[in-house]
Amino acid sequence: MMKNTGKWTKVLIPLILLMVIGTANYYADIFFKEAEGVIWGRTVTILNNGLDFLLWVSLAWALIRVMDTIVLDRIFSRKIRKPVPKILKDLSHFVINLSVFVGILSDVFQIPVTALLATTGVISMVIGFALKDMISDFFSGIAININQPFQIGDIIELEEGTCGEVMQINWRTTIIKPLSNILSIVPNGKISSMEIKNLSSPGKHYRVHLEFHMDFNVPTKRVLRILNAAAKSVDPAITGTSGADAHILDIDELGVKYRVRYWIPDFLKWHPTRTKLIDNVMHNLYQAGLAPVYSKYDLYMTDMPKRALDKHSDQKQLISRISLFRSLNSDEIDQLVSTLEPQSIKSDMAVVTEGDEGDSLFILVEGLLQVYVKKDPNGKDVNVGQVNAGEFFGEFSLLTGDNRSATVMAETDCVLYEIEKCKIEPILEKRPQLALLLSDFLADRKLKSVQAMQQHKVKVKQESKEELADIMLKKMSGVFTFLKKSISG
Question: How far apart are CA 47 and CA 355, in angstroms?
Answer without folding.
Answer: 104
